[in-house]
Amino acid sequence: MMTLTALLVVPGAIVGAAAQLPLRLALGTSIPVSFGIAAIAGYVYGRVGVPWSLGAYVVATAATAAVVGVVGLLITGATWVWRRRRGRDATPADGRRRRRRRRTGRVGRLRRVRGTAGVERPGGVDGRPGRRSWWWLLPGAAILTSAWLIGQMILTELSATPGGTANIFQGWDAHWHANYIRFIHDLGVASPDLAGELRYPENGATLYYPSTWHSIAALVMGLRGIGAVETYNLVQIGSVALVFPLGVAALAWLITHRRFSRPVVATSAAVAAMATPLFPGLPFVEVMVAATPSAVANGMAGLGAAVVVAALADRRLIPAAALGLVGIGGVHPSAMVTAAVFVLFWWLFDGLWRPVRGRVRDFVVLAGIGLAGVLTLLPQVLTVSEEADDISAFEFQIDADRAATWGKAVALQVRHVQDWGVRWVLLSVAALGLVVMLRRKVFWPLLLWGGLLVVCVNSMSVFGNWTGGVLRGIGSIYYNDPRRIGVVLAVVVAAAVGVGVGATVQALAGWLGRLVDPLTDPDGGGVRLARVAVALAALVGVGSWVVQASPEYAVAAGVNQRWNRMVDEHDLRAFRWLSEQPQAYSGLIYTNPDEGSGWMYATDGLPSTSRHYLQPGSTTPLTTYLFSRMDEAGVNPRVDRALAELGVTYVYVSPPNYWGFQKPNEHLLRLDGTPGLVKVYAESQVRIYAVRDAFTDAELAQMVEDSPFPPERRSPLTRAAGTYGPE
């Protein structure tokens, strides 16, 4: 975990320091910035043929910091010259008016309501004017505590499974992610548009897949000297544990920072971060289903949006905002859209009416940051747009009436999350937060929540008129999956929980402040103490709630789909044996993607034909052809030519299939009598066949002799034997 944290924090913090950010801002914005560095570097290195490595990451960080530093100096110099010239031409009265405008535009300016101890206007903090605020420590500590709780709870459950942290997740997404980590680690190919070299070993056909998260994981694999499976497990848990509390806290800040006092802002962000584990989807369900890049990226979306908005008041944040968007999009493109939607709703329903530095200047900065992020990822965006039809084809509709789908969306009862029922208390606190926002005329979060709600409902049951098609187009960003949309909804609701608790407890502290006699407490020390006390009490209360409620979610995240559904001890033994055989790495090992045997690449680096859980289809004609003709090897010359052209040396069979709708492939289940293949290994459901033409007779005889499970000892493979084991 420390290795991952260093890789995600240090590079971004260095770039933040180059942008002249204070340490707390450099650290707070570091994770998406680090991902941004990796996203750009991975693509550039892929173009010029430089392998991805720790050294390459260091060079990219240094180059980015240098560029950001030089650009920052140029902007600072130009701004200084412009202000000097304007200062000479302006009258004193004009200068005073400009200074007043600048003061009112700043976010977080300290102001006290005259004559009322402990009661503040938006942006203020109780204490003497000019006193340095330490309120940022509160959300910082809450984020770290929440991240530790999430990671520790899941790791505790995972460690109790067979194999511990190296346990193989028996699901499809993890199968691909672990293979991708191994691929980047072994070959140094981290460019997302070169993912076809992994996905389609037959011909390396063009394929885009976001690789930034996998690139960082590959560095962890090399630094720690662990396998791809263990790397996947640890980096998945560590990354989601870090980003979700951070992203939720940042969104709570974005909601409150302009209309609430600094103690309310800090308490809201801290409570939101601490309350994150109370939501099954943040991030336990995402760990359970292995939707890792999407979860990590959307977990950072709130932070990305907050940094973009904060850059309006502090131009030093512009590089962090742009790089952060690139990093979020590099981890998963859907989250860049999520962050953009957050900013869009904030600007349309708040920033446009109460600009920070003027409508035009605000728009130019926002558009510039967005344009920088999009243009940086443009080559990748163009590549992924070619797969838009495949993405939009996903269906997750449910058999429920319209009222039921609305109820499910409002209560966050989407796929998998509904297994734990409705969390009524949590939703009630979120409703309190919405009331607080409405009272302070902060409308954009409610409108944002409503928009996401409509898209989520449409993904469960499409609206019958033209709006259904439009909403499906919007929802395709999230594969029209209610669970993925529900993650973004839950982030908004979690931020609302923070606002509800933060505003309520600080209102209580403010009421207590009115009871303090200004004569006995002239500097407001008692009020400050009350504010800190109620904030800490709120955090302790929410933390206690987390410790009691969240472990059941962690059980699902750490244990579900960990029990030999696809790969068991028989497969692992077969992988190890096969890795020691002649030509195991000089050709390809034909596997059935429906059986999940492609895990052999992640565990032992064996070059399987299937490293993804989906059938390759027409993209790989030879691989697809052999899928229904393998039992004709040695009889059909066309099959023999396909085996030779593809370079297949072994065939690995290990039923049953993963999904119930996947029909058993009889062409792979009846290979014992195939003349062109020689069975060299047979244990339980596992069969390994050597391609006769790829070996000499002596090599084949030696393999059979050395086999710990000679084929003559086993009964013929049948569908029943594959399912229930040998007789």
UniProtKB/TrEMBL annotation:
Q: List, alphabetically, the InterPro entries matched.
A: DUF6541 (IPR046671)
Locations of Basic residues compositional bias?
Answer: 96-108
Q: Which segments of the protein form a coiled coil according to its record?
A: none
Q: Give the UniProt keywords, A-Z.
A: Membrane, Transmembrane, Transmembrane helix
For this UniProt entry, which segments traverse the membrane?
Answer: 54-82, 134-155, 234-256, 263-283, 295-313, 320-348, 360-378, 420-438, 444-464, 485-509, 529-547
Q: One Pfam family from the UniProt entry?
A: DUF6541
Instruction: Identify the stretch(es) annotated as Disordered.
Output: 89-108, 706-727
Q: Which domain of life is it from?
A: Bacteria
UniProt name for this protein: Galactan 5-O-arabinofuranosyltransferase
